[in-house]
Amino acid sequence: xxxxxxxxxxxxxxxxxxxxxxxxxxxxxxxxxxxxxxxxxxxxxxxxxxxxxxxxxxxxxxxxxxxxxxxxxxxxxxxxxxxxxxxxxxxxxxxxxxxxxxxxxxxxxxxxxxxxxxxxxxxxxxxxxxxxxxxxxxxxxxxxxxxxxxxxxxxxxxxxxxxxxxxxxxxxxxxxxxxxxxxxxxxxxxxxxxxxxxxxxxxxxxxxxxxxxxxxxxxxxxxxxxxxxxxxxxxxxxxxxxxxxxxxxxxxxxxxxxxxxxxxxxxxxxxxxxxxxxxxxxxxxxxxxxxxxxxxxxxxxxxxxxxxxxxxxxxxxxxxxxxxxxxxxxxxxxxxxxxxxxxxxxxxxxxxxxxxxxxxxxxxxxxxxxxxxxxxxx
Length: 378
Ligand code: PMP
Hints:
- The chain is built from 13 helices and 13 strands.
- It has 378 residues and is an alpha/beta fold.
- It folds into 2 domains: 14-242, Aspartate Aminotransferase, domain 2, CATH 3.40.640; 243-370, Aspartate Aminotransferase, domain 1 (Alpha-Beta Complex), CATH 3.90.1150.10.
- 4'-deoxy-4'-aminopyridoxal-5'-phosphate binds at residues 68-70, 92, 94, 114, 118, 162, 164-165, 185, 196.
């Protein structure tokens, strides 16, 4: 199999599988419990928290573990329920759909802009927010149970960034980025699915999404997913030891760019939806449209040849909507419908690129021949 859906999920690293397997036995206890096995489990949770905090330039208390990036995104948006929320049109559904439902028109205002897009890999500029104006809205003047202000950083504008695709691909520092909230997910770096984290800067508004026990300093109820968090920690450790951002920048970028070049010269009717220049996109994602060919068909034909890619369309009960990201970027439904995402990871080699190019031109040719859309052949 040639796996080119790393932006979807990175296969769990062998080190992660091993440590999680052992953790099921060694750290089974409820991490909130006061007994010794509980303390030992909590110690492991805190190790991952410290490591993530260090890697992103935050304090450990500013990290909240979640069930993934979707929950982290939902949590930030719901904190601003009834308030102004502005998102980029390229956000993940776990931002866009929630914002649509919960935005209002009161200040303070939340901006949610991802730094890099999961479908095209494009790197975006974060908006400049106003950090000088202050407010006394109810969200900012709420008191905790001891009568202390919950929010000490009482600005009119806050910034969230979904950094799910960025972690491991580029060094991250939340202070340098100037974000108040940031989202991460373990399964995009070789950790387990179902674990993520939210960075919440000290003193900014926060409302728990899951209300329950006292876990995560009352910011996220639910028994700690100790084993998953240990797996996340191992993936972070491997990422930092290997300086994965260098591997992505040097090795993986070359695979991606070679595939792009070969597609453009060897596959008729192909056009790139990813800007390849360094700094313009993540090094591992390549989104391509093929004239008169449907993305889903390309995906299925490639799959039959053992080449795994993804498409941006959301297929829901007969309603095939083109990717909102490509629609926002190109404004062209045909381009959006005919797009495929190739996303690379550390296990890929130039052999994989060769294999894609053995089968892709034939598949596109076949689809273009049966298409009702007429096209000029190269
Ligand atoms: N945000 C972005 C940018 C993503 O790429 C993804 C995963 N496709 C998510 C959020 C959702 O992540 P999770 O699966 O951890 O909920």
